[in-house]
Fold these 4 entries.
Entry 1:
Amino acid sequence: QVQLVESGGGLVQPGGSLRLSCAASGFSFSTYVMRWYRQAPGKERELVAAISGTSDSINYADSVKGRFTISRDNAKTTAFLQMNSLKPEDTAVYYCNACKMWLDYWGQGTQVTVSS
């Protein structure tokens, strides 16, 4: 059974940091591209960051470049999103996604709220 379980969300003040984790199971983790998406209230889901299976290709949305870092540990089948210098506009539900060809898996999401 495929599972993606996000954790690490919460409430943080502007300028603070959070580290999201996505624990994966039930599929060949190292062969999948891992992505983080987010969806704010009333807005469409947007791609935040993506990392290839071997971590040799990494991409970020312009809105998070220089502040967020995506990584993965294939031995632990876990993906991460380190978020620094958080802004109120980063408030959203963050989702983990695993994708390979036509296969596409999603986690349940974790809430990140940036507020003073």
Entry 2:
Amino acid sequence: QVQLVESGGGLVQAGGSLRLSCAASGSIFSASTMGWYRRAPGKQRELVASITRDGSTNYADSVKGRFTVSRDNAKNTVYLQMNSLTPDDTAVYYCNALYKGYMTYWGQGTQVTVSS
């Protein structure tokens, strides 16, 4: 059984920063590609950033240069450092684990609200 628990969301003013964390239970974390997705009101869920088990990262164009994804395999935790936040970043952020290329797990989501 794999469980992903996000934390760190909240309300922040434009230009501010937040750091999201996702703690994973189970034994697959170090072998999984971990991703952060978000769903804004009225929009489809989109990939924000991902990091492979080897540390290769990928970012949506809209967050490049502002967000940084990282992982600590010893703590089974993935992070998303978000800087220079704008109201367009307001969304529910979800943690995802992709194992063996097809087994996928989701967290419950954490709300990020950026006020102007």
Entry 3:
Amino acid sequence: QVQLVESGGGLVQPGGSLRLSCAASGIAFSIYTMGWYRQAPGKQRELVAIITSGGSTRYADSVNGRFAISRDNVKNTVSLQMNSVKPEDTAVYYCQAANYKYDYWGQGTQVTVSS
């Protein structure tokens, strides 16, 4: 059974930092592209960042230079370091594992940026 479990969400002030983590089980983690997506109220889910099995990364323009994605193929985790957060970063953040055939999603973790 595949499970992706996100953690680390919460309330953070503008300009602050937050670190999200996603623990994966039930998949050959190292061969999957891992990603973080987000969905704000009334908006479509959008890509935040991805990291391939080889470690290549890609970011949405809106977070490039502020967020950093990383993975640990021993612990089967993927993390998202969020720095200099803005109110527009408020959303539910989802972890995804994808390969050429399958994709799996976590249940999401809420991030709220507010003073």
Entry 4:
Amino acid sequence: QVLLVESGGGLVQPGGSLRLSCAAPGIIFSTYTMGWYRQAPEKQRELVADLTSIGSTNYADSVSGRFTISRDNAKNTVTLQMNSLKPDDTAVYYCHAIRNRAYEYWGQGTQVTVSS
């Protein structure tokens, strides 16, 4: 069973920063596109950012310029640095791994709450 383990969520004030990390020890990490999705209450899950095996990035318009995704293939980890956080960023954030549209895994989610 493949496990993606997220960490780093929590409560932060508007304008603050958080750093989410995801460890993926059970896959050939360097071959996967790694990403972060989020789901707010009563909303659909949406892509926040992803990073392909060759280093191409994709960001949702709502986070572009504020969030940065990065990966460390030697440590099998992907990180999402979130700056200038807004209340609208409040959601459960999920780590995601996919390869060849056939091998796909999700983390259990970590709560991010932006509130004063």
